[in-house]
Design a protein that fits this description.
Length: 140
Amino acid sequence: MFQLTLIIALLLLLIATVCDLRTREIPNWISIAIALVAIVTSSVGWLGLGFPLVIAGGALGFLVGYSLFRFAQLGGGDAKLIAALGLLVGPAGLLIVLFGMAIAGGVLSLIAIWRKEKDYAYVPAIAAGFIWYIGFFSQI
């Protein structure tokens, strides 16, 4: 069931990616849906994380997302998505997601510079970080 949880989250991230690429906005229902998936699957034991780790991951995701929103001009929707993913993967998993996200974000930034764009969608980097997490987790 853990794999199904990851697939649902990945599909929601792909929807968020399409929305971000089209409108530069991420609907709130996507972040809420990922958070609900995390809480429900943790409650029934499918997530593999205890509820304290789910809350710790959400708190870390909120802290990182808010910091990036406040100081690095990341969008509010991106910050909410990071917090929701923190609930889903826990604090250690979120560090893996953030590492992959940073690498993908750097590539996106270089592409934006090359295209002379000042604004670009960042959800593809968040989704890439989550895919990085899935790949890392499957190796364990």
